[in-house]
């Protein structure tokens, strides 16, 4: 039985990946920052067989202790502060957790495996935010990075540390450069879930307005369940490498609004949605869209959920949740 250790198991991707690996027969271990609370309970619900270890990416000893206890064959580093929008307000904290946290984990792995570098395969959750001011459209694995947010800069540090530990120490260290992926488990601060929740509440008469940022921003949005399958495939390859994971299509925030409101029978959403400068960002990623040729050819990976299906899935889930609460 293979053993996997997932940092960030309480997050959107951690829950889907934990479920996937448990289904595949893995012994799943996860890092949690606290051994109680709603997010802890969500992991227990989704992956009841998982063993959870209290640790923090900013605390190297806690990482080493968890590795020594779990003895994983595969480590998936999904932990980190992941919200770009607030990363300007806590740039230093995001550098510590999302950037240096990856280095702390790589170092803990080195200490844990000693001379036997082949004992562990490491996956780093890199991000399309590293492309920021895109130097090429679409972006592929060799496109130069130009991060436009403290989050993007921190992810770029973690990404290059992953490559550096692969090249310097022969560690099997791979990364997935993932474009936006969403689901009913998405945090409520991210734009897709913010919209699906608000639409559900507006349609039930629980709210009557939605404050938004840049409605013309475009993203390459896929379904998180598809994207965690790519993470697993990446670590099953004979040689460690980096892969773009995306749908290859972009949509504007207003397209998401169109479909989400249409799903509850509202066509003229303009009377509910207001642009509030608080949600505008100092700089934005531009023309972010992924070229997945390598993932398709090497991993045999392709997304299975369309943009339309994703929006419908999220609105339906929020409608059901809101109705339950009534
Ligand atoms: P998420 O839902 O925000 O989950 C983040 C996870 O990181 C949570 O489990 C959180 O735990 C944990 N975490 C936060 N601070 C930590 C710390 N100091 N030490 C250890 N763990 C910590 O993010 P996600 O959407 O699942 O994304 C997973 C990873 O992929 C993230 O690194 C994200 O930056 C990256 N990524 C995401 C996307 C996307 O579109 N979703 C795209 C590219 C890359 P708590 O529950 O304790 O807060
Ligand atoms: N959150 C939010 N709230 N975003 C808004 C809003 C709003 O009210 N209005 C417009 N947007 C725009 C943002 O400006 C951005 O262009 C786009 O919607 C998507 O924002 P988010 O959903 O917050 O995601 P993100 O693209 O900044 O970051 C996500 O994807 C990255 C991969 O590219 C996160 O999951 C990151 O962790 C991930 O790396």
In short:
The chain has helices at 12-23, 38-46, 60-70, 91-113, 150-169, 191-203, 224-235, 253-263, 293-299, 307-325; strands spanning 3-7, 27-32, 51-54, 74-77, 121-127, 172-178, 181-182, 210-212, 218-219, 222-223, 242-245, 251-252, 273-275.
List keywords for this structure.
single chain, 326 residues, alpha/beta, Rossmann fold, 7-stranded parallel sheet, two-stranded parallel ribbon, 10 helices, globular, binds NADP nicotinamide-adenine-dinucleotide phosphate, binds guanosine-5'-diphosphate-alpha-D-mannose
Describe the structure.
This protein is α/β, with parallel strands linked by helices and 326 residues long. The protein contains ten helices and 13 strands. The chain has helices spanning 12-23, 38-46, 60-70, 91-113, 150-169, 191-203, 224-235, 253-263, 293-299, 307-325, and strands at 3-7, 27-32, 51-54, 74-77, 121-127, 172-178, 181-182, 210-212, 218-219, 222-223, 242-245, 251-252, 273-275. The strands form four sheets. A seven-stranded parallel sheet has the order 3-2-1-4-5-6-11, sandwiched between helices. A two-stranded parallel ribbon has the order 7-10. Strands 8-13 form a two-stranded parallel sheet. β4 (74-77), α4 and β5 (121-127) form a beta-alpha-beta unit. It is globular and about 65 Å long. The mean pLDDT is 97. The structure holds NADP nicotinamide-adenine-dinucleotide phosphate and guanosine-5'-diphosphate-alpha-D-mannose. NADP nicotinamide-adenine-dinucleotide phosphate is lined by residues 7-8, 10-14, 31, 33, 39, 56-58, 78-82, 97, 125, 127, 178, 180-181, 187.
